[in-house]
Structures are given as C-alpha cells and as structure tokens.
Amino acid sequence: IAELEYGAAYESAFKYLHWVYILRQRGEEIYSLRRKLLAFPSRVSPLFISLLEMSDPRALVITAHFFFGLIPLVDEIWWLQGMAKREILGLLTVVPEDWMWAMEWPLKQVQYLYIPT
Fold first, then answer.
1. In this structure, are residues 86 and 44 in contact, taking their beta carbons and an 8 Å threshold?
2. Which residue in 86, 25, 94, 84 sits closest to 59, CA to CA?
3. Of 63, 72, 64, 23, which is closest to residue 43 (Cα–Cα)?
C-alpha cells in the first residue's frame, strides 16, 4: 500500500473529526453532534481500521482525539460514563514513546499527567 493511501486514510479520519469539532464550536445541538461523532467508526476507511489493528501510531493518536471529542457528549449517558477516558488511557499503553507529544491534548482533557520514562 502506498504512503499516499495511508495519508488519505489519516486525512479522511482527521477531516471528519475536525468537521464535528467545528460544528460543536458553532453551537450544533448535542444530540446531533453525538450522532455524528458516534458515526465516526463507520465513516473511516477500511485502511484506517487496518492501521489501528496494526497499532499505527498516527491512527492511534487520531482515535484518541475521537474519544476526547466523545467525553462531553457521552458522559451524561449512564452506561457510557467514563468510557471515553478509559479508552484514551488504554490507547496510552500502545502509543509509542516518540508519539506521546501527540497525546498531550487528549491526556490534558482527561486530566492525566504523563511522565516519560
């Protein structure tokens, strides 16, 4: 698979999350945002899913940002409370050390202090 295809998979996932973020900034209704964000896994390419399965660092970081976006949208639902934070912290265990800089924002949002080893 060409690097160009990887780039397209990353870009498509990122653009979708960015679109939802912009809608949130513009005051989109929470139920609409929740629907759009929860659709994220079905909107990414099969290649992006494969990259996640291979623990590709960039795909993992994009996914951490997806879970960060979920926090204010799902924590009010009793059966989803804390799920996004747990997933972010779980991703922390597989993201390589040299990619931790890209996890800073999601970790800050869940108030987790990462101390490099």
1. no
2. 94
3. 63
Three-class DSSP labels, 53-82:
HCCCHHHHHHHHHHHHHHHHHHCCCHHHCC
Angstrom distances, CA of residue 82 to CA of 8, 39, 79, 91 = 31, 19, 9, 14
Helical segments of 1-117, H only: 3-25, 30-38, 40-43, 46-53, 57-74, 83-92, 104-109
Give me the phi and psi of 60, to 5 degrees please. Answer: -65, -40
CB atoms within 10 A of CB 88: 23
Closest-CA residue to 16 (of 50, 46, 43): 43
Kindly report the pTM of this predicted structure: 0.82
pLDDT along the chain (117 residues), means of 10: 87 92 89 88 94 94 84 75 84 93 86 56
From 18, 3, 95, 8, select the one nearest 45 (Cα to Cα).
8
